[in-house]
Amino acid sequence: MQIDIDVTLHYKLSGEDTVLLTLEAAQTDGQSVQSSVLDIGQATQHHIDAEGRVGGRTYALLKGDELNLRYIAQVNVTRPEHKLTGLAQMPLHTLSPDVLSYLRPSRFCQSDLLSAFAEDQFGHLDGGAKILAMRDWIATEISYVVGSSFPATTAIDTFVARQGVCRDFAHLLCAFARAAGIPARYTSVYGADVQPPDFHAVAQVWLDGGWYIVDATGMGCATGLVIIACGRDAADVAFMETTKNAWPVAQTIRVSKA
Questions:
Q1: CA-to-CA distance for 97 and 83, rounded, in angstroms?
Q2: Order of strands across the sheet that contains 18-21
Q3: In a domain, 224, yes or no
Q4: Residues 117 and 190 in one domain
């Protein structure tokens, strides 16, 4: 399936700045970037690899106090829609260092504080069936409410408040999975069916020796999502990071199936 992506960002900054951007579709398993253009007006670009060897980042050295950006890409998504039922949880001693890091608590995914709940609620299940039960619990118990959370909102905050947005759903699923001994990483994506259109967040879980996408919001499926980057939580994959204050003037994200 071809997914077309068109992103426009216009931000006002408090002065010249070096902006770190993580918004380009990744060349990774299950998807291939057919074409892409990143146009940043009045900026020098430097490209680097992202953490976890998935995707890349761009340093934009701005010459003025505004960021004007246009990103256009066509991505061919070839990953199938896997059923998680039957996929096994991998023994701890088989986890590589890259995978093991996604088993630990992080700033926004305090999995160590949810171990007792995860065991009580999901301990009778195994592997993929356990992840599906976690996804279904979140879909049932957590309400999707735009504006209900903030950049500092953690998985525990969401667990208590029982509401959030995609970022919070992904954090909570990652925290549940890690609490149950299943590595999980927070993954930023573009989704053709995401409403309202925006940068989207899902989880990827490590089962049977591979990463599998799980969207607890129910808005996306593996065949219609384009991976941008992944990390321990949202702090690792913010679409834009600045050293000075930045104010949005206009932001448009369009994602469609060709």
A1: 26
A2: 43-49, 56-62, 18-21, 240-241
A3: yes
A4: yes
pLDDT value at position 237? 95
Which pLDDT tens digit goes with each residue over 176-190? 999 999 999 999 999
pLDDT tens by residue, 104-158? 999 999 999 999 999 999 999 999 999 999 999 999 999 999 999 999 999 999 9
Q: Which residue has the tokens 């049932």?
A: 140
In a domain, 62, yes or no: yes
Q: What range defines the domain where residue 248 resides? A: 2-78+239-257
**Structure tokens, 129:** 């069936």
Structure tokens at 194: 């995401």
pTM of the model: 0.95
Question: Structure tokens of 211?
Answer: 């990463």
Residue 11 is part of a domain; what is its CATH number? Answer: 2.60.40.2250
Which positions ≥6 away from 237 have C-beta within 8 Å?
22, 50, 186, 187, 188, 228, 229, 230, 231
**139 within a domain of the structure (yes/no):** yes
Residues 33, 75 contacting (CB under 8 angstroms): yes
